[in-house]
Amino acid sequence: MSRNSTRSGPPVAPGTDASVRNLRPDEQKLIALSRRVGYGWLTNIAVRDGQLVFTAQPRARRKFRLGKPEAGRHTQPMSEDFKLKAHHLDLIERLRRVRNGMIVSIEVQDGLPVDLTLEEDVDV
Question: DSSP states of the chain as a string?
């Protein structure tokens, strides 16, 4: 499948300036949402031609350890721009390849996306 620059967006491959500021606005929003969730899942996000579509309200299922203070990297203040981790890069690259689909869930651990479940149309 050929990928045009509109669909693929700026490069996020290792070795490039892989920071939040170099992502498209829809991708920046997803990274921010994952940090806000902390631990849990993001659901109900459409993907059209490799771009995230937030027309429906995304949902978050959050997981808390009872009896323990909330801690971890996701609770630390961060600037709007930071260097993306391998988890972020993998997520963005996979989503950019989706033509038409729905994010069933993105599991988030300490603000990082660690697991993606996706439904997508397939050609027959």
Answer: ----HHHH-S--STTS--BGGGS-HHHHHHHHHHHHH-SEEEE-EEEETTEEE-SSPPEEEE---TTS---SGGGS---S--BPPHHHHHHHHHHHT-SEEEEEEEEEETTEEEEEEEEE----
